[in-house]
Each structure stands twice: as C-alpha cells, then as structure tokens.
Amino acid sequence: MVPEPVYIAGAFEHPTREAPDKSTMQLHAEVTAGALDDAGLSKDDVDGFLTAGVPEYEHGLTPLIMADYLGIEPSYMDSSDVGGSSYVGHVGHAASAIRDGHCEVAVITLAGRPRSASQATGTGARELRSYQDSFERIYGATNVTMYGMAARRHAHEYGTTSEQLAEIRVAASKHAQYNEHAMFRDPVTVDDVVNSRMVADPLHLLDCCVISDGGGALVVVSEDVESTLDRRCVEVLGVGESPGHHDAGRIDLTRTAAERSGAAAFERAGVGPEEIDYASIYDSFTITVLEALEDLGFCEKGEGGAFVEGGTLQAPDGELPFNTDGGGLCSNHPSNRGGMTKVIEAVRQLRGEANDEVQVDADLALAHGTGGSLGTRHGAATVVLGGAP
Amino acid sequence: MSWEPRPTPDVNPETAAFWAAASEGRFTVSRCGDCGLAFHYPRTRCPDCFSDRVELEDASGEGEIYSYSFTEQVGGWPEEALPLVLAYVELDEGPRVMTNVVGADPESLSVGQRVEVEFVDTEADDVSIPVFTPV
Ligand SMILES: [Zn+2]
Q1: Which of A49, A65, A108, A152 gives a 20 to 30 Å CA spacing to A6?
Q2: Cβ atoms < 10 Å from Cβ of B13
Q3: What is the sign, positive or negative, of the torsion defined by CA atoms of B38, B43, B47, B52?
C-alpha cells in the first residue's frame, strides 16, 4: 500500500550567525514564525510540534517548555534527541504522526547560541554525564579528537589522504561564496586546508565546521493541507534512522549507521543513490562527509577519497552537488546541530530557490544527519525528498 | 603522576569492581558465561545474548593501537599533560577500549603498535585509571 503523501510546506533558516542579544527561546519563536510564513500558515494551524533537547534548558521537559512559551497546545509532541541528526529524523516522525491522524501541521524547530556562549564545541573536555562518560570522557575525549581517530583509521585501512578530505572543504567553500549569510565566504584550496593549523591530528582547522548561533524550522503537512497552499511543497518520500555505537567494544571507526538509515530511506522512497540529484550531508568534520558518502552508497566503502576528487561535490556541474549553502563547514552550525540546515537546503534545491550559481536541476534530493560522535555513539538519519507533484 | 585535576569516573554499583581491580593493578574485561563474549565497558548483562551471567576476568593488559589522535587543545585539561593522545586500544581479548597513550612522543605512534596497560592513581583508594604505553 502506498502511504499517504506528506509534504514539507515551509522551511526557514535564521539569517543570524551570532545572536548575543537574543534568547534561545526567542530564536525558536522566530524560526517558527519564519517557517509558518514561508508555508502560508499561521500559529493557529499548528497541531504538531517537534524539537530536540534545548541544551541551555533542563532536558526532559522540552516539549512542555516549548509549547508553553510558544502558546500552542499540539495534539502531537516529540523531543527525541539524537544530536544533530534529530531534525532529519523528526521529518519522518512528523510524517508518521500525520499519516496516523495525530496532526496535520507539524512544526520542527532548532535554535541555539553556542557562539555567543563562547562554547568550545570541538575542543572542550566535557563533564561526565552518561554511564559511558566514565570510560571515555575521563580521557579528555573531545569531539575533534574522536573524529580525528575516525579519520586516522580510515586513512590506515583505505589510504585516504588529508588532501582528499580537503576536497570536501574546497567544495563547500566554493558554494559558500554565493551565500550572503555564510560565516566563511572565501573559496579555499586543498593547500589552504592541509596547511591550516592542526587541531587534532590528522584533522586541520579547515576540516572542522564553524561554531555559530542561529536555527531553523520546517513545517510538515498532510496532503489535505498541502492542497490548500499556494507554496511549492516538497514530498517526503522516505526516512530512515539508526544508531551506531561502541558495540560492546567492536566499534568500527570507518563505518557509520548511514549504512542502515540510508538503506531504509531509499527503500521507502523506492529509489537508489544513483538517482539522487542533490545531497545535503552533515559536515561536522570533513571525515563525517566522507564516511557518510560511502555508507549511503554513493561510492564503495573505502573509495570516498577518490570519489570526492575532481570536483564531484561541486555545484552545479559535479556528479553529486552537496551542501550548496556552504554547509556546516562554511555557513553555519546552529546549536552545534547540523541536521536542520541540511533539510532546509535540500528543500531550497527542489524548489529551485538555492543561490543561482549553485542551483541544481534537482527532482530528487537527500539530506543526511550524523549526530553525537563517530568516536563513541552516533545517530544517523536520512531523508529522501521529491520535487513538486 | 596523579590523575587529578582530570575528571575521575563516577563509580556506581555496576562498575565499582572494575575500578577496584584497576586500583590493584588489574585490567579486567567482562566475560559472558553463556555466549562467551568478552566486552568493555563493564555491564552486568551481556549486550549480545542478554544473559546476566557476566563476570569480570583479568585481561592480559596488552593489545595494539586501533586508532589515535593527538592535540594541544583540550579545554579544562592540565597543561603539563599536553599534547594529549586519545586512542582506542584493541585488547588481545578483543574489545576496543578508549584510553590515553602515554610515555611516548605522539609523532612516533602508529596504528597497530603494541601497547600495555599501566595505572594512574586517583585520590580515591579504590579507583585507578588504566592508560596504555608502548611495549
Ligand atoms: Zn552473552
């Protein structure tokens, strides 16, 4: 049975990259208003609300805190939190809730201010929180050293070079020059990347994403609602999610749960990676992109390095244009969570609303999130989106 | 050296025996009495077959570097302990264990290199931290 079509009707990315004079809740409200306005809907239409943990606030009561602040009483709420991949998965949760009749207009929000809070996202040794932290964080594990271990193991097994990883930053930077809101708009070369300061060997500064304030929101709607809107909507064709973790000590730093989330999303959508015209791939670090490209099936395992050479990822003419907003590497990484902006740029591409110089002729797009850490445990979420009916 | 001011583990009833063994100079892995899996970090129930017949057993304390990264930049880390090498060591018993590699120039390390455990004391008598050093 073909499931009822569900659509993304609204998408809004907050233009700010630094918001010292705003609260995080204010940013949530602003992106909610922006996405509803984009869809041609209003707050009174909202009967579903999804967001992941609001880091500056108490975890656990997030949906209540948000509903109270925004002044909504949704019949569906979801705050499942798998880090930066959450918002990609939320698209699937919203679609399921709509198909089950729990809601018709679901808003997904992300906002955060790590830049204004001077957060050392990549290099800070975190206090112990989870059971596992007492076996990991006690060793000073930081985000960048954990991804550094993944990069070194991938290099060891497959010969992947720093120059190949750099190609990913080069492509993102070429796209970012056309994004007026991007934090880093100057195109860089492979030499620029490999000669930038070493942060955690083998990852250089330009292998790392930015730290920014900001946020974004999506509005997911039923077919009945979609039929009343003037706005060009994008169909949610398939979503998949999976965790990847330490696996009792068998962790493989060269593989990610994109193997499973991607396969599930493609199966539900009834398409394969070779049919994807544009891909948003979460880019906390260059190695995050490289491993995801392999695991999503855009190339064989171990061949990611060769795949990204020669401008493969560069829009508009590369074989697989990616992150045409500049991505987390160059544009923004609000709340240290990149899944939301990945979906937003995929929606822009399918609507023909990407920046002119990087607009792809796209009927099918993919957005992929990697949350948490490849060095310990991560969430993977993949969505396949289709252009207007 | 002492571990402080680095973070020390939150010891709970499920992990206390692991840390106590470490304080006696023994690195232990968890062994499932039903399926035979050797695993790390310690848990009372086997993450493969879900048996609760799990015991800590003494490991050889030897293994090889599975991967590593090193950095001069670790917020909140004592400066004299930098650069810091974060690593996964694959124990001879199987599990890959997150740790620090100490006592070697980070530039001299390699994946596959043989290492052995040593222990760093903490302010608590019954908690020591396992780290690894090249053989
Ligand atoms: Zn077992």
Answers
A1: A65
A2: 7
A3: positive
Q: How confident is the model at residue B29 (pLDDT cuts 50, 70, 90)?
A: very high
Which pLDDT does position B75 carry in this prediction? 87
Please list, in sequence order, all residues whose beta carbon lies within 8 angstroms of the beta carbon of residue A183, skipping any fewer than 6 positions away: A17, A210, A212, A330, A331, A332
3-class DSSP assignment, residue B130 = strand
Under 8 Å CB-to-CB from A323, ≥6 apart: which residues?
A: A171, A172, A175, A280, A281, A283, A313, A329, A342, A345
Query: Cβ of A37: how many Cβ atoms within 10 Å?
Result: 14
B9 interfacial to chain A (CB closer than 8 Å): yes
Structural domains present in chain A: 6-119+209-386 (3.40.47.10)
DSSP for residue A205: G
What tokens were used for A364? 């099918």
How much is the ipTM here? Answer: 0.98
- The 3 state secondary structure assigned to B52-117 is CCEEEEECCCEEEEEEEEEECCCECCCHHHCCEEEEEEEECCCCEEEEEECCCCHHHCCCCCEEEE
For residues A373 and A284, is the Cβ–Cβ distance under 8 A? Answer: no
Rounded (to 5) percent helix, strand, coil in chain B: 10, 40, 50
Tell me the per-residue pLDDT of A266-315, one tens digit each, with 9 for 90 and over: 999 999 999 999 999 999 999 999 999 999 999 999 999 999 999 999 99
In this structure, what token pair is assigned to residue A366? 């993919």
Q: What three-state secondary structure class fits A369?
A: strand
Q: Which amino acid is at A338?
A: G
Q: Which residues surround ligand 1, an ion (CB under 5 A)?
A: B 32, 34-35, 37, 46, 48-49, 51
Top residue of B2, B27, B73, B117 to mutate, by most chain A CBs within 10 Å, is: B73
Q: Which residues pair with A371 in a beta bridge?
A: A379
- Which contiguous run of DSSP H or E holds residue A304? helix A304-308
In the three-class reduction of DSSP (H, G, I as helix; E, B as strand; rest coil), residue A362 is classed as: coil
Taking the whole predicted model, whether its pTM rises above 0.80 is answered as yes
How many other CB atoms sit within 10 Å of the CB of residue B76? 15
What backbone phi and psi angles, to 5 degrees, belong to A40?
80, 30
CB < 8 Å to B120, chain A: none
Q: Exposed, middle or buried, A200 (CB in 10 Å: 0-12/13-18/19+)?
A: buried
Give the residues of chain A that fall short of pLDDT 70.
1, 55-59, 388-389
Q: What is the pLDDT of residues A84-99, one digit of tens each?
A: 999 999 999 999 999 9
Which fold does the domain B16-134 belong to in CATH? OB fold (Dihydrolipoamide Acetyltransferase, E2P) (2.40.50)
Residue A10's Cβ-count burial label (10 Å; 0-12, 13-18, 19+) is buried
Look at B76 and A376 and tell me if their CB atoms are within 8 Å.
no
A144 SS3 class: helix
